[in-house]
């Protein structure tokens, strides 16, 4: 039995039932995406070998690679998505989740090394984003979007070298990439990041807790008020925890969060998504400028 589902990246996600039970098969038939999918598989394999408290990673059983296509065969997890979970979660469950997120990121930090990330890593990435926005048919004539990109370039040019932990991160630690199974949380869809830093995982989880990004991709009815209250509670706890512990978080979180949303903007094509991103980026720019004065 095979049930095909379209993945966010354009990959085909299939639930396959064979003699060994249920598996997830994630496949790409785009030759340009093969190497990236293989890198994701290798990152997931390494993560699945690490013992995390309450954090789990589905096992990868096999990676099939050809020149024009690739498939990752992995463990199927019975679970709820973040909306289903939050709509029934009590205070203790949310507290438990907060603890698991902090524990996971602290382990990443401890496994990383403090390094100097040269200023050009950020400025080169910003220049690449600017080029892609200008080539995006939905943005190239959007004066507001282009002005936001120009203002963002000024911010990135002023950041300079960054000293932060570098070494281990999930790469796309959003609610949509967490499977909820009781008090166990399974991480999926590992990605390479332009800076392999735990700070990028804090950026990604706060993409949801502070800005509720993943709800924009959720098309079923849900209690928006309840979800916003829960998200704000998680966000406050995460922000306070890392603010108290790490100078590099206080220094570089906001410019990297700004870069995070700019990297989403460069590929945006839906009107509601573009409007949302412009609003978020505008607010971030105002916050950074007010904080720096």
| CATH architectural group of the largest domain | Alpha-Beta Complex
Note the total helix count.
10
Return the domain count: 2
N-to-C terminal Cα separation, in Å?
A: 61 Å
What is the mean predicted local confidence, pLDDT? 93
The major sheet is characterized as: 5 strands, antiparallel
CATH topology of the largest domain: Aminoglycoside 3'-phosphotransferase, Chain: A, domain 2
Order of helices and strands: EEEHEEEHHEHHEEEHHHHH
- What structural class should be given to the helix and strand makeup? alpha+beta
How would you describe this protein?
- This protein is α+β, with helices and mostly antiparallel strands and 293 residues long.
- The protein is 52% helix and 18% strand.
- It is built from 10 helices and 10 strands.
- The strands form 3 sheets. The protein has a 5-stranded antiparallel beta sheet, with helices on one face.
- Helix 3 (91-111) runs antiparallel to helix 6 (198-209) and helix 4 runs parallel beside helix 9.
- It is globular and about 60 Å long.
- The protein starts with a strand and ends with a helix.
Give keywords.
three-stranded mixed beta sheet; 10 strands; 10 helices; 293 residues; alpha+beta; disordered N terminus; globular; 2 domains; five-stranded antiparallel beta sheet; Aminoglycoside 3'-phosphotransferase, Chain: A, domain 2; Phosphorylase Kinase, domain 1
């Amino acid at each position: 039995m095979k049930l095909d589902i379209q993945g966010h990246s354009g990959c085909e996600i299939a639930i396959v039932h064979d003699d060994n039970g249920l598996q997830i098969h994630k496949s790409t038939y785009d030759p340009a995406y093969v190497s990236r999918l293989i890198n994701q598989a290798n990152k997931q394999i390494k993560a699945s070998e690490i013992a995390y408290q309450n954090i789990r990673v589905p096992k990868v059983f096999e990676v099939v690679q050809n020149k024009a296509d690739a498939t990752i065969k992995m463990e199927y997890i019975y679970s709820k998505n973040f909306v289903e979970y939050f709509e029934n979660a009590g205070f203790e469950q949310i507290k438990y989740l907060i603890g698991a997120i902090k524990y996971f990121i602290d382990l990443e930090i401890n496994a990383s090394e403090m390094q100097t990330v040269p200023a050009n890593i950020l400025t080169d990435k910003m220049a690449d984003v600017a080029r892609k926005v200008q080539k995006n048919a939905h943005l190239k004539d959007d004066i507001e979007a282009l002005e936001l990109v120009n203002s963002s370039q000024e911010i990135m040019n002023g950041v300079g070298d960054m000293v932060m932990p570098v070494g281990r991160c999930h790469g796309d630690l959003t609610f949509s990439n967490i499977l909820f199974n009781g008090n166990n949380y399974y991480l999926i869809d590992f990605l390479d990041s332009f800076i392999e830093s735990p700070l990028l995982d804090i950026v990604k989880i706060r993409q949801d807790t502070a800005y509720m990004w993943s709800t924009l991709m959720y098309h079923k009815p849900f209690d928006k008020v309840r979800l916003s209250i829960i998200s704000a509670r998680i966000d406050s706890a995460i922000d306070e925890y890392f603010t108290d512990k790490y100078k590099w978080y206080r220094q570089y979180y906001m410019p990297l969060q700004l870069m995070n949303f700019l990297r989403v903007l460069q590929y945006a094509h839906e009107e509601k998504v573009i409007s949302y991103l412009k609003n978020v980026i505008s607010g971030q720019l105002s916050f950074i400028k007010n904080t720096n004065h």
